[in-house]
Design goal:
- This protein is of the alpha/beta class.
- The chain is built from 3 helices and 10 strands.
- Helices cover 23% and strands 39% of the residues.
- An 8-stranded mixed sheet has the order 9-8-7-6-2-3-1-10. Strands 4-5 form a two-stranded antiparallel ribbon.
- The protein is globular, with a radius of gyration of 15 Å.
- Bound molecules: zinc ion.
- Zinc ion (ZN) binds next to loops.
């Protein structure tokens, strides 16, 4: 398997789910998991994100969020449903969280803590990290490109019917 991600496709639904979840709190971080599947198109690794599953936070601040253990159950159940009804190839394709920054920064970067999550936990080459800023609406997606964690420039939103 290719170790660099080339392109990321988001269902419109997953983007709406992420944006609505992070917009619920414009001061504290929110996070969740991404269910999707992986494609190799002309030898290039591509990830499709079908759905975003919000995590329930136990504590949250502007600088971080700690989630309930039960939150993992939510994405596991959603994934099981996708595997049963659509394809065995669905997987945990990444995670998202908000950076509720204001002012001069658009907030779209990975902090040291975010980077260590990408390095140690959700570290498969097809897994992506999405950052959204509920104050201003900027967003970015990060993943592994040639052994480094970088912003993925080729990211698209698909209309729902296309893959479903
Ligand atoms: Zn962060």
């Amino acid at each position: 398997m290719n170790d660099s991600i080339s392109e990321v496709f988001f269902s419109k639904k997953s983007v709406t789910q992420m944006e609505e979840h992070v917009a619920e709190d414009k001061e504290n971080e929110r996070c969740g998991f991404l269910i999707g599947r992986v494609y190799e198109i002309s030898g290039e690794l591509c990830t499709y994100i079908a759905e975003a599953i919000p995590a329930k936070e136990t504590s949250s601040s502007m600088a971080g969020v700690v989630i309930e253990g039960a939150s993992h159950l939510a994405w596991l159940l959603a994934l099981e449903e996708y595997r049963k009804t659509k394809s065995e190839n669905y997987t945990l394709a990444g995670w998202y969280h908000s950076h509720p920054f204001g002012g001069f920064s658009d907030g779209i970067f990975l902090s040291g803590r975010d980077t260590s999550i990408v390095e140690c936990q959700l570290n498969q080459p097809y897994q992506v990290a999405v950052v959204l800023n509920p104050n201003g609406g900027s967003r970015g997606v990060f993943g592994w490109i040639e052994g480094k964690i970088k912003k993925i420039e080729k990211a698209y939103i698909l209309s729902e019917e296309f893959f479903e």
